[in-house]
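re: that chain from earlier
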Amino acid sequence: MGKVVEHLLALIQKQVDEHGIVVWYDPGGVYAEVAKELTLPDTAVLHFQDSFFRLRREIEPFLEFVDDEGRMRPDSHIPPRLVVYVPLAQADTEYALVEVESAGVVMAPGATPWQRNTRLRVIAEHVFKKIAPESAADIARQVEEGRLNLRDLDQLSSEVEQISTGTLKLIFGTASPQDVLLMFVATPQYDEELERRQALPELAKVIKRELGIEVEEQASPAMARHAVRRTLLLTDFLAPLALAEHPAVFSQVPLPQEEQHCRNACQLCHVWRQRLDFLEAYLAAARNVEQELGLAALDLPWENLAAGETFPVLETKLLAQAESQILEGNPLNALHLAERRKNSFWARQEPSLQLRWTLVENSARVMILGEAIRTELSKVKKAPEALFRLYTRETDPWCQLDRLYRHLERQYASFDLEHHQDPDLLEKVVVQVRQHYSLTVTQCTEALTQAFEKAGFKVSGFLSQRNIYQQQVFPRLLDREKTAYVLVDALRYEMGQELAEGLQEEFEVTLTPAIAQLPTVTPVGMAALMPEAEKGLEIVEVAGGNVAITVGGAVLKDRAARVKYLQEKVSRKIAVLKLRDLLKPSKKHRQEIKEADLILVTSQEIDRWGEETEDESEARLYMDEVLDKLRRGIRRLASMGVPNLVITADHGHLFGEAFEGGAEMDPPGGKTIALHNRVWIGQGGKAGDGYVRVLAHHLAMGGDLELAFPKGLAVFKTRGVTGAYCHGGISFQEMVIPVISLRAKELRPYVPKTTKVLLEMDKTKVTTRFFSVKATYGLTGLMGAEEIRINLSVRANRKEVGFAVMAAYGFEEGTREIVLRRDKPNAITIMITEENLTSISVHALDAISQVELARLENIPVAIYI
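^ sequence. v structure.
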């Protein structure tokens, strides 16, 4: 009998002595073995088995001392001594023993006073506070987590008492065996004292008892530590396998054989990995043991070890397996593995591993969703309206594929292949995913083009781009509501969807898909967003070998012409700005916004990056940055008193690497007025199998020009190099544009004083391009939001030198905003983008107000990119 059971029995005995009758409820039968053997002096013990009727009959002789109201009779000279054990919760008995309870007392988990509380955690805490106060809280926590039962506690009480009265307590300052072992394996700082006090034999007994590991009598503390580390880590590594399944290569390694020893070893490793003060020691020990054992070269059942986190080699092997699964056509298996591993211990320690897992995850999702779309496409009605609905529906929209693929390409553009094992495998995965994505987009584009042609290039049931101003902006001006009209060049629907999702806390948001006017090029699309566009457009040739749109008799060939036209048509005061003007608005711009009824904001960043940047990887990184700038600009407008905003686009775009279905072809020829890679505009020429020709009036435009559009992802041969970025033609990505209507909410003012964000780094300096920062959000007062959004700014000499690329949870790819949930730490991966840095600072900014919430300063940098 151990000290925990002794304490429990003493509590029961005391209640019997003082009250006579004790009804002991034990939900789950935690104390079943104790109750089975329970004997107390001059006391009857009854057990509930299967019937309360039977139990009540057994109790009845003891109730002769009780009156009808459940009180002891005044003429009772011999009080009953009775314990009734019921392995159920009191609430589950339907008051079957209420008379007995009234005559005595109830002992149960949570009962009051504490002497009647039989919750195992409480019992354990009382015992260990006496014999090992340093360990009491830790042991109670382990009981609460279900890691220690009554038998474990009795054994532990004996062991802890031995340590607490021995030399080890003096050396390590604790009586907890786990703490003693952890401090020994993690650090050599106690070696000198162990040798001086000749305490290694005593420690060896604890190691043997707790872990089943033999330590040589003549070993030094350093030698003993090395041996224990090796066996400890290997035991943890092989834990997912049964003993009989251990690979033969480890047959000569003396590993613990008892289940309890293995559990203790795994628990010790788990705690070691969680201790920040011993983290560096764990990383070094794991890498050293991995190298000594030559694990990287061994043929092991890696897939069966996937639940472990012991060695970094496990991560690289599982990554290779997941990537191979994608190449072999099993993306679902790869997805499940990536979801389990992307936040594992080594992925958090080496952020580039985490990024690679995210690449695997998104690659698998692109392939799975692409296959689902192709299957659904083969079964649906081929009408423009039906296809557009599938692309924009609320549940599982096809446009989700474009967002996933955009994120994948941006992540891949951030990834450094040179510093990873087997980069060829990941490159092959990305190539295959690109092919699958291209196949899906090709089939969708061909189906949409065919359906559009068959329907006479007409679509009903969707908002037309030409009606956006009339339906979304004009009514607000008519009601004299101050409104911003934000026109974003090349903002496709899925990007607008992502933009809108992050604004729902501050705005009432309505997202509507609209169909862009063909051809999907800037002069046409921007003109279609002007007043009176709903009355008719005409496409005309202008000087310089290009086309323009005539609206209401005005030729709108460029931004200046459109701004002048808008100012003439709108009988309200207008402020005209570019997106960059909103990020740090000047005093002049602030005054213009204050005085204006309509604020026109234009952004050309997406189109400019796509068309002008030769480095496609760089373009991908900066195009996504536009979403962050847009969101900040929108919030800035709202903060300056603009309650209503309408955000839309002139057209979308295609941006996919190496389109498999996109061959170059000759344009129709004849009189070519304008030639883009996705549209020919002119007169005459020839027909071709690879494209469709249509007269301007079939596209609801005046003029005598003709247009030709590729049927799939093909492009026309144009002067210069045709890149992966293009627009102008018929596809979901080019034609479907977002219309985001925002109305600012009445929000409670943001109060930084109540919000506390803590930034921490596990390492003392930055040694690779990727590093992690842990951010934790809390409150200093009683009131506050359950979660907040932040941006991370990485600076050196007041210049931005890096940005967040992912987080353990709540990371928005498009805007790089990060959600922090109250009291839930978030590990954020940051990428350094500049060279020759010596130090950096990391700043956490509130995403809405841009107020700085926390910072880490003077972080040393020891890398060369």
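The chain has a mean pLDDT of 88.
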